[in-house]
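Minimal example, chain plus calcium ion.
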Amino acid sequence: MDGKVDLVDAVLLNKFLAGTVTFTDQQVTNANCDQTDGTDTVGEEDTTALIRFVLNMEGYQTLPHISENA
Ligand SMILES: [Ca+2]
């Protein structure tokens, strides 16, 4: 959430979902890595998309991820 995306962001996002850290509105916006559902909701699927992006997995070369198979 600091301009570059790496595993630190995935850890932060997990902490946010667990309620142990709070995000600013901007951070929540940035955390919405999977927008397949077309909403602003941040959840487990966003962590998944973020990690897959960090790992440069097929279909996750860009963020936000929007699945074509939803
Ligand atoms: Ca999302």
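The two ends are 26 Å apart (CA to CA). The chain has a mean pLDDT of 92.
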